[in-house]
Amino acid sequence: GQQVMQIPQYQHVQEGEDFTTYCNSSTTLSNIQWYKQRPGGHPVFLIQLVKSGEVKKQKRLTFQFGEAKKNSSLHITATQTTDVGTYFCANSGGSNYKLTFGKGTLLTVNP
Amino acid sequence: NAGVTQTPKFRVLKTGQSMTLLCAQDMNHEYMYWYRQDPGMGLRLIHYSVGEGTTAKGEVPDGYNVSRLKKQNFLLGLESAAPSQTSVYFCASSWTGGKGEAFFGQGTRLTVV
């Protein structure tokens, strides 16, 4: 897979505030996946984006894939304490077999 | 439907000891992966398999070996454990390799002293 950079590494918000994490690549990505890992848990798949400019929504979560397919974002509207965890982006690169993860963004929410 | 099951869940090893981590999936997936997770490093791919009888190296394969003798099982071996291998290990499986959802096991927390 191709290396992706995730920013920020950490984000602390007050409950009700919005949150955004970004995943950036220097090369074009064939796809981007997003996972959530709760503290002490395992990564759980959220969504996959494959098309240029694609936008998908899951309740308060909005996922975007950039027009150039070099970046992606995950936006959470009005965070809740249940949103706490680490959010990872991942991509397959050119191999189709491997799945390479970014370093993740740890979100903490103050109630 | 158990999904992906890892055993053991916790283990403490002494430097130089060997052990095998077992990953079993009941979804008939072709692709299976072993990752390690360390603070601030994300998930790093150790080895992976694209089908029964196949294995390939990932980003950090040194010090580990793997085998996929049966489609449903993917074993990760540490021949001579080192403190640098203290980590949380996750197994994952997928229908479509890197092009589709990966399902993760609960993880194995390994400490090498």
Brief summary:
Chain A has 111 residues and is mainly β.
What is the overall number of helices of chain A?
0
DSSP strand tally of chain A: 11
Overall pLDDT of chain B = 95
**Assembly form of the protein:** heterodimer
Helix share bin of chain B: under 10%
User: What is the element string of chain B, with H for helices and E for strands?
Assistant: EEEEEEEEEEE
Helical content of chain A, roughly? Answer: under 10%
> What is the approximate shape of chain A?
globular
Report what the structure shows.
Chain A is mainly β. Helices cover 0% and strands 50% of the residues of chain A. Chain A has no helices and 11 strands. In chain A, the strands form 2 sheets. In chain A, strands 2, 4, 5, 9, 10 and 11 form a 6-stranded mixed beta sheet that branches. In chain A, strand 6 and strand 7 form a beta hairpin. Chain A is globular, with a radius of gyration of 13 Å. The N and C termini of chain A lie far apart (37 Å). Chain B is mainly β. In chain B, strands 2, 4, 5, 6, 9, 10 and 11 form a 7-stranded mixed beta sheet that branches. Chain B has a 4-stranded antiparallel beta sheet with strand order 1-3-8-7, with no helix packed on it. Chain B is globular. The mean pLDDT of chain B is 95. In chain B, 36% of the residues are buried. The interface between A and B is medium-sized, with 28 and 28 residues.
Main traits of this protein?
heterodimer, A: 111 residues, mainly beta, six-stranded mixed β-sheet, five-stranded antiparallel β-sheet, 0% helix, globular, B: 113 residues, four-stranded antiparallel β-sheet, 11 strands
Write the layout of secondary structure elements.
The complex is a heterodimer of chains A (111) and B (113).
Chain A: E1 5-7, E2 10-14, E3 19-24, E4 32-37, E5 44-49, E6 55-58, E7 61-65, E8 71-76, E9 85-91, E10 100-101, E11 105-110
Parallel strand pairs in A: 2-11
Antiparallel strand pairs in A: 1-3, 3-8, 4-5, 4-9, 6-7, 7-8, 9-10, 9-11
Chain B: E1 4-7, E2 10-13, E3 19-25, E4 31-38, E5 42-49, E6 56-57, E7 64-67, E8 73-78, E9 87-94, E10 102-104, E11 108-112
Parallel strand pairs in B: 2-11
Antiparallel strand pairs in B: 1-3, 3-8, 4-5, 4-9, 5-6, 7-8, 9-10, 9-11
